[in-house]
C-alpha cells in the first residue's frame, strides 16, 4: 500500500505537492519553474477548455492564434504595461546563430501583438466589434514557483476584444467576468466572489480590472480569473482607429480577459481532503470507476460479464473506466480515492446474486456515502448521483468559505480574520492605507465585490470615510 498523504492540517503545501505528483497530474521539468502536465492533469485542462470554449462561442467569440514572439518595441509602446511586466520577461537576443536587430519577448500576454494586428484590420465601425479568444501558452519568469499555481510557462486562454464605444467595452468586460463566475461555480464547483481590483492590484495597462476570488482549503485566496477594461490605452498606443457613423476618426475601446491552468490548482485546494483529490463530476476525467471483486476464476467468470454490462450501460453518457489491474480491491479503492473519481462502483459475487451494485461517493466518506443500487436502471441512477455530487461539492465549498469569511468591527478583529480566512470590511480606497495593511498583516485587497451593501462606513484601518466594502486575505 502506498504511503499516506501528509494531512492537510499538518502541512498544506506538502499535501498539495504530494497530490499533484501521486495523482499523476503534473511533474517538474528540467527547466526551473516549468512543469510537465501529465495525461490525467491535461484531461482536467481539457475540461476547463471545453467548459469555457462552449461559453465563449455562445457569446459570439471566435478562436485565433497569434505569435509567441513579440518585438520588444511593442511592449514599450504602453508605459504602464511594460513597467508591470518587465521583471518577468524572457527575451530572445540571438536566433539562427546571429544577434537580432531587435530583441524578441517570449509572450507574457498578447495585448501588444494583438493591438498591432487590430490596427491593420479595423478601419470602420462596420468592422466592430472584434471578439477573439486565444488558447495558448505564455511565459512569465517567476522567482517562486509551484505546480499549476505559479509556473514560468503556463497554459491559458486570453480573450481580446475591440468595440466602438466605451459602454460596449465595459459591458463586455463584465459579461466575461460573469462567464468565469458561471464556469467556476457550475463546472468547477468553486464558489467565487466577483469584484473589482484596487488601483494597486489591477492589470498593468488597464483602466479597471475585475476578478473572481476563491477561498482555498487553507483559507488563503486564489485569483481564479480576470477581466480587464483597457479603455483606449492600447488603442492609442497601437493606433487602433476607425471611422464612426458620422465619418469621424475614433479610437477603439478594448478589453482582455483570461483564465489559466492555475484553476486546476484551485480545484485541488478547494475540494481535496486527506485522502487526496475530490473532483467535481463535470470536471473529472473519469466519473465512475468500476472495481470488480472476486477471489477465484469461478467468481471472476460470474462477475466480469456484469461489469461489462454496467460499462456498456454507462458508456454513452458517463466517463467510465473498469479497473482490471492485478491489485487488491483495497489498493484500488485507496488509489481511486486519491485520484478523486466521484463515484466508485463495486461489483462482487454477492452483488451479482442480488442484481445490484455498490456505489460509493467520493464527496461523502465512509458508509454514509455508500449505497446498494439495482443494476436495472443503473444509468439513470448514476447520472442522478453525479448531479447530486456536483451540487453537494459546491455546497460544501460554499459553507466552508462562508464559515471563514468574517466581518470585523475593529482593526484587531481584522488582523485576526485575515490571519485565518477572509475579512470583509469597509475600506477608504487609498493606496497608502492599502500598503500599510499589507505591510502589517501580509494580506492584500482581493477585490471590491460587485455586490455592495450601499451607504457608507469607516475604513477598518485608518478610520477615514469609506464608500465601499473590500475583501482582504492572504493569497497565492
Structure summarized in a few sentences:
The protein has 476 residues and is α+β, with helices and mostly antiparallel strands. It is built from 14 helices and 25 strands.
List keywords for this structure.
single chain; 476 residues; alpha+beta; BirA Bifunctional Protein, domain 2; Rossmann fold; Translation Initiation Factor IF3; 11-stranded mixed β-sheet; globular
3D architecture notes:
- The structure is a single chain.
- This protein is of the alpha+beta class.
- The protein has three domains: 12-271, Bira Bifunctional Protein, Domain 2 (BirA Bifunctional Protein, domain 2); 288-379, Anticodon-binding domain (Rossmann fold, 3-Layer(aba) Sandwich); 406-473, C-terminal domain of ProRS (Translation Initiation Factor IF3), CATH 3.30.110.
- The model has no long low-confidence stretch (mean pLDDT 96).
- Strand 18 and strand 19 (370-374) form a beta hairpin.
- The chain is globular and about 80 Å long.
- It contains 14 helices and 25 strands.
- An eleven-stranded mixed β-sheet has the order 3-7-8-14-11-10-9-22-25-21-20, sandwiched between helices.
- The longest helix has 26 residues, at 378-403.
Amino acid at each position: 500500500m502506498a504511503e499516506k498523504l501528509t494531512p492537510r492540517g499538518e502541512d498544506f503545501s506538502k499535501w498539495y505537492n504530494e497530490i499533484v505528483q501521486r495523482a499523476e497530474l503534473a511533474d517538474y521539468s528540467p527547466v526551473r519553474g516549468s512543469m510537465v502536465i501529465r495525461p490525467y492533469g491535461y484531461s482536467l485542462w481539457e475540461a476547463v477548455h471545453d467548459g469555457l470554449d462552449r461559453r465563449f462561442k455562445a457569446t459570439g467569440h471566435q478562436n485565433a492564434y497569434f505569435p509567441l514572439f513579440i518585438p520588444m518595441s511593442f511592449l514599450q509602446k504602453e508605459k504602464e504595461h511594460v513597467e508591470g511586466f518587465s521583471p518577468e520577461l524572457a527575451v530572445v537576443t540571438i536566433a539562427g546563430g546571429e544577434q537580432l536587430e531587435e530583441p524578441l519577448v517570449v509572450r507574457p500576454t498578447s495585448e501588444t501583438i494583438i493591438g498591432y494586428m487590430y490596427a491593420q484590420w479595423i478601419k470602420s465601425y462596420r468592422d466592430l466589434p472584434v471578439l477573439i479568444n486565444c488558447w495558448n501558452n505564455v511565459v512569465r519568469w517567476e522567482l517562486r514557483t509551484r505546480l499549476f499555481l505559479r509556473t514560468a510557462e503556463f497554459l491559458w486562454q486570453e480573450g481580446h476584444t475591440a468595440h466602438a464605444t466605451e459602454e460596449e467595452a465595459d459591458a463586455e468586460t463584465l459579461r466575461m467576468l460573469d462567464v468565469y463566475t458561471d464556469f467556476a461555480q457550475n463546472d468547477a464547483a468553486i464558489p467565487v466572489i466577483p469584484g473589482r481590483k484596487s488601483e494597486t492590484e489591477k492589470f498593468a495597462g488597464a483602466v479597471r480590472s475585475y476578478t473572481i476570488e476563491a477561498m482555498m482549503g487553507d483559507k488563503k485566496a486564489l485569483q481564479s480569473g480576470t477581466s480587464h477594461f483597457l479603455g483606449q490605452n492600447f488603442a492609442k498606443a497601437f493606433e487602433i482607429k476607425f471611422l464612426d457613423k458620422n465619418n469621424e476618426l475614433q479610437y477603439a475601446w478594448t478589453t482582455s480577459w483570461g483564465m489559466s491552468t492555475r484553476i486546476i490548482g484551485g480545484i485541488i485546494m478547494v475540494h481535496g481532503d486527506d485522502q487526496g483529490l475530490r473532483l467535481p463530476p463535470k470536471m473529472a476525467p473519469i466519473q465512475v470507476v468500476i472495481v470488480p471483486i472476486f477471489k477465484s476464476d469461478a467468481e471472476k467468470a460470474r462477475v466480469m460479464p456484469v461489469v461489462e454490462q454496467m460499462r456498456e450501460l454507462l458508456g454513452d453518457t458517463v466517463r467510465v473506466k473498469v479497473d482490471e489491474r492485478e491489485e487488491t480491491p483495497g489498493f484500488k479503492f485507496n488509489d481511486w480515492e486519491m485520484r478523486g473519481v466521484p463515484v466508485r462502483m463495486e461489483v462482487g459475487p454477492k452483488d451479482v446474486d442480488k442484481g445490484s451494485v455498490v456505489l460509493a461517493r467520493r464527496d461523502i466518506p465512509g458508509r454514509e456515502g455508500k449505497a446498494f443500487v439495482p443494476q436495472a436502471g443503473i444509468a439513470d441512477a448514476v447520472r442522478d448521483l453525479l448531479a447530486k455530487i456536483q451540487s453537494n461539492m459546491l455546497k460544501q465549498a460554499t459553507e466552508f468559505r462562508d464559515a471563514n469569511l468574517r466581518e470585523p468591527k475593529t482593526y484587531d478583529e481584522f488582523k485576526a480574520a485575515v490571519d485565518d480566512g477572509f475579512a470583509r470590511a469597509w475600506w477608504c480606497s487609498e493606496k497608502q492605507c492599502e500598503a500599510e495593511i499589507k505591510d502589517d498583516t501580509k494580506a492584500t485587497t482581493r477585490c471590491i465585490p460587485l455586490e455592495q451593501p450601499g451607504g457608507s462606513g469607516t475604513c477598518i484601518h485608518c478610520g477615514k470615510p469609506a464608500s465601499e466594502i473590500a475583501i482582504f486575505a492572504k493569497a497565492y
